[in-house]
Structure formats: structure tokens, C-alpha cells
Amino acid sequence: MAFDFQRHTGEFEAREAANAASAGEPVAQAPVGERLQQALIRIQPIVGERHIVTDAGGVEERGRVLIPAAGRAVAYVYPGSAEEVQQLVRVADELAIPLWPASKGRNWGYGAASPVRDGAIVLVLERLNRIIEVHEELAYAVIEPGVTYRQFNAYLKQHHPDLWCDTTDGTPEGSVIGNALEKGIGETPYGDHFGNLCGMEVVLPTGELVRTGGGPANLATRHTYKWGTGPFLDGMFAQSNLGIVTRAGIWLMPRPEAFCSFTFALEREADFPVIIDRLRDLALKDIIQTKVHLINDFAFLSLVSQYPFELRNGATRLSRDTIRRLAAGFGVTSWSFITGLYGTREEVRLKQAAIRRAFAPYGKLTFITDDSLRRLQGLSATLERMRQRPRLRAISEFVTRRVLRTSPEILAVAPHSHALLQGIPSDFFVGHAYFKAPSRPATDVHPARDQCGLIWFAPIAPMTGRHVGEVIALCEPLFERRGFEIYVALMMINPRSMVVLMGIFYRKDDPDETARATALYGELSDATLVAGYQQYRATVGLMPQILDTAPEFKAAAGRIKSALDPNNILAPGRYGL
Ligand code: ADP
């Protein structure tokens, strides 16, 4: 069935209103008219006029998304403290106005700072940006939701250089807590972001503030012992609409004695399943401790080049041959990955040997240390200067391609991936959202503002060559039928599961491409769910129906929702609740 982001939102609202009416429950109506006016009047003295955006232009700009459509907010409000959040929630609860919380709203490709349904007031928590505590000995920090990867990293580098925080390959301006609450994945051994949160402060939909973990107010283990006393409530606040997290503890990684990153380029595509099985084996043995980015050739093209519309030859997508030829020009094979090794010097040396044994028979392996990266950067700068001089260009090309067996484009990626694997964020990778734009900015990267089109589809599979291969085989014909090239980035979320991330890159100013992208997203979701694969994360367009295949689970979660949020004011529709 073709999927329609806008129509879908409407259907959901109608169904929910009917359900609520039959159950005799109050429903938060779209806050047009009187109740909304009243709410905004009461919100003003709480946060101050300059922290409320209601003008159409401002709301439109903040509501921009990379997906084809999302719900429209009526206002963006920027509280400055947890107490202000509590007061806002109480006003919304009293007047039955829906509130949609966002920390920074930079989850580009899933929904940014836009709600599932029209008519919500979006609470952006970016002014709550304090790093409250860093505990050196116990390697944790307590932070607020407005803290970004860039800010957190810079702070640790300056004040606690022996502690690393994790990051994503998304924007450095993303929220550390926002990403964790969406179960986002990072780059270092601490890349399970939700798994590394410990002890939260949460404002409930009725305005009370709770601290998770049980125990007394001065609980000594709040940020060191996750399970606390009694039921583990923390899980209720991830991918849900049961509370607004205003503070959380986050575990930090002690800087290892030694680190190196490494890249691998698969020689024969037929060996792909073997690579998945070898990665799992090494991860289960704790030799690889972090996410592996295993990407296909088309994904690599999106990183290092602009989409070559002129090579489509009248079709709506590039042929496999064209993709292969372009990728080969960059020295890229069908599949390649990057990851890191961590430990003592001795451990890293032994791990390198294990990696060589596992992967060298299947392709090209390159280990990169801080020292070799510096040499590589010096060399690539020299080669670049030679390339600019007509008489030396041929020598530069020969050394790059034949001696180093690489390309300037691959050399340009290395410093960014090497840094990312140490938790240092970079604008480089998120630039791929501009793949179908005329060019990509080097700084101030903001694909939502710049109207780029990208939908992330993120099914997750058990980590075997057979399962991962099955998901790709299921989805590839759907991409082809809708006239898109398949983009795949495989991410090992733990040693037993792999996210098979697929990107649908489309032009927002092209109605036909937008319609095909929308339809494809729905088809991918249907096909994978039928085959038994869930999504690790969904766009706001798909959220209302994401739990429909698990009716008992949805009903149980719904009962918790009704108990905690009797007026259904907090992010209605988020993840099907
Ligand atoms: P990022 O800026 O890191 O991409 P977002 O702020 O967009 O993260 O958060 C992703 C989603 O998670 C939001 O749309 C929101 O629904 C939810 N969320 C974010 N922060 C909070 C929070 N502090 N409390 C509850 N839910 C949150």
C-alpha cells in the first residue's frame, strides 16, 4: 500500500478521536482558538516573550524537515529550567493542549523538531544546556538535554581530557540526551547511547518531577547503578511520550592507552555474508567493541560527491554499472567499513593481528594511528599540491592510485572517521544529506533549513550474513521499482544485532520524486515487518502505526500512557501511543 505522510497523519487523528470517544476519554483537540490563546497568554510570563515563537515564518522555519511532511506546530517555546518545564506542562494539562518535547530537534531524516500531528506546541529544551557535574573517578557526567556533542566534547577536552564522551556521525549540534532517548547509536565502545544513560530527572505529563532509580533524594548510586531499587522505569522514557527528561547521568569512557582506526574494502561482493559473520565473531569475543559502519558503494558516493543527475540517461536512477564505475573511480569497492580498536598497546597489537587473520583474505585493510594519520595528511597535502601543477599531476595520480591504492576522496574521509571513533564530532558525514543538492556547505551544515530531502528507514536484523542479506534482498527490488538506488549503511548496534540503515535521497522540489520516496518508505516498512524485522527508530510519519503489528504490547503501553498522561497532552501519537 502506498504510504502518504500527510494523509497518514489525518487518518491517525480521526481513528484516535473515535477510539477516545468510544472509551469516554478526553482528547487534546488541536489547540486553535480560545484554549490555545489562553495557553500562550499563560506561557508568556513563565518563559518570557522572547522565548516563544508563534509567527508563521518563524514556525515554518523551525518546523522544516527532511522527510516529505510532518505535523505542523503552532508555536515553539524555549523554557530555561526544569521548573519552567513543569509549569508549562501543568498549563498544557489543564487546557488539554498537546506538547511535543525536543532537545535540539536535529534528528534530521526522522522528523527534526516537528510533531506527529498538527497543532502541538513544541518545547525545545536547548536553553537547558548545563553540564552539571563531571565525576572523574567514576567516569560519568550529569547533563541537561540542551547539551550538544560539540559542547560536551569541547568541555571534556578542556577540563577532563582523560574522559571521552561518545558522538554520532550526525550533526555536532545534536543533543546528547535527545539522541539517547531515541535509542541512537554512536561510534566508540560507549555507542549504545540509551544503554549509557544512568539516572534521570523527568517531568511527568501532569507536572510532577521524578528521579529514576528509587532510593532517597541523596541516593549515592543514582548515576552509577542503573537498575536501582524496584521496577526499572528509565526504559519508559525512551521512544515514548511518558515524560520530559530534564537531566540525566551519562557514563563516559576512560581514554584508552592505545587506539587505532581501520578501514576495510571488500574485494568480491560474493564474500559479503562472510564479512558479517566475521564481524559478529570478533564482536562477541570483544575484539571489536564498537559500531562498524559497513556501507555500500552508493552510500560512499553520497559522502564524497554530488549526485550525477546527468548520468541517469533519461531514467529516474543510476544504473548499477554507472554506480560501480563511479565508485571505482574513487577507489571504492562494493562494500567497505571503518571501525576502531581500543585498549592497552599490547591489546591493540593483538587485536590488529586478529583483524588481519579475519579480513585480509577478503580485501584491503588499512590501520590508521594518530601518527600514521599525521603522515598521511602531510602526504595527501603534498599530493594535492602536485595535482594542481599540470607537469606533476600524472606523478601525483600514480602515487595515489598505484602506490597507495587509494584516492584523494578516500584520503579526505580518513581524518573525520578517525576522530569520530574517538568521540569527536564532525560536520563532514552529515553533508551527505546534500547529495542531490547542487553543492554542500563546508560549515554551517543544516540540511533541514536548506530544504534537502532524505528519509531514513532503519530496520534491524539479527547479526548473521543470512538475516542481513535477507533484509537487503527484500528491499533492493522495492528501491528499483520506485526508481531509486539502494543506499545501505550497516551498523552493528551490539554483537548480536545490526541496523540495516537505508537512506532515500530525493529532491524536495520534485513532486514526482517526493511521491515515489514516500511510497517507497511505506513499502519498505510493510515488507520488512511482514518478514519479521522491526525498525530501530521511525520517522514521525510512521510513528502512529509503528506498533500496530504488536497489539497486546501496544495496549499494555497504552494503559501506562493513560495512567501517566490522562489528558493525552504529551507528544500524542509518538511511537504509536
Ligand atoms: P537531536 O537534536 O539529538 O537529534 P532531538 O531533540 O530531535 O534530538 O530528539 C529526538 C526526539 O526525542 C524528539 O523528537 C523528542 O520526541 C524526543 N526527545 C528529545 N528530547 C527529549 C526529552 N528531553 N524528553 C523527552 N523526549 C525527548
From TrEMBL:
Residue ranges of domain FAD-binding PCMH-type in the record: 69-255
Taxonomic superkingdom: Bacteria
Keywords: FAD, Flavoprotein
Protein name (database record): FAD-binding oxidoreductase
Lineage: Bacteria, Pseudomonadati, Myxococcota, Polyangia, Nannocystales
